[in-house]
Amino acid sequence: MNRREKANFILITLNGLFPEPRTQLSFGDDFTCLVAVMLSAQCTDAVVNRVTEKLFRVARTPQEFADFGEENLRNAIRPCGLFNTKAKAIIGTAEIILEKYGGRVPATLEELEALPGVGHKTASVVVSQCFGKPAFPVDTHIARLANRWGLEKSPAVAKIEATLKSLFPVCTWKTLHVQLILYGRKFCPARGHSVEKCPICSRFSSHQFCFANR
Ligand code: SF4
Fold first, then answer.
1. Residues with CB under 6 A from ligand 1
2. Which residues are catalytic?
3. Nearest C-alpha to atom 3 of ligand 1 is from which residue?
4. CATH 3.90.190.20 fits 3-21+137-204, yes or no
5. In the CATH scheme, what is the code of domain 30-129?
6. Alpha helices, DSSP H only, in the chain?
7. In this predicted model, what pLDDT tens digit does every residue of 176-206 receive, in sequence order?
8. Which of 77, 89, 148, 164 is the most exposed place for a label (fewest CB within 10 A)?
């Protein structure tokens, strides 16, 4: 089975397992999406959702975040970890969005990546989930699966992103990104996976579908 055949099989299986996948982060609009994704760095979605449930009651817009201020934000987001860095970046981002973009979140990767604390993955999630533009954010789950399935041998995220974009049709990227994360969380942890319970690899035990240590 070559990589393209693997990709087709993976796509069909994921569509069966997760027909209507939803991103696990809770947000209401473009800006709260950006804030939630910024908070999710090295933090679980569940913790981010607990924090934003309270936070978004007092601040939702760039102006409200700017008024809320860095110190209040630091305290509010403490459970997310890296709270000093994240608070500084979110307030800086809110101020730039107000001054440069009239309060609206910019819709291009380039503009988003120029905001403080907004890296390529965060920008890719926002353009994909909020603006419906083709992007393929690669997180640890997706990188692990791409490596283990032999779709891309390199651990470099940029290489993995380019390979996945070449293997899967553009129209699938937005959904596939979420499906892969759900699959990784459910079946393919860093340690302690079970081939028998893996709906994709269990079908191919004699064909070296997965290159993880078994
Ligand atoms: S066999 Fe294990 S390591 Fe390979 S993709 Fe399935 S769950 Fe992950």
1. 145, 148, 187-188, 193, 195, 198, 200-201, 210, 212
2. 121, 139
3. 212
4. no
5. 1.10.340.30
6. 3-17, 30-39, 45-58, 62-68, 70-76, 83-101, 109-113, 120-129, 140-148, 157-167, 173-187
7. 999 999 999 999 988 877 888 888 888 776 5
8. 148
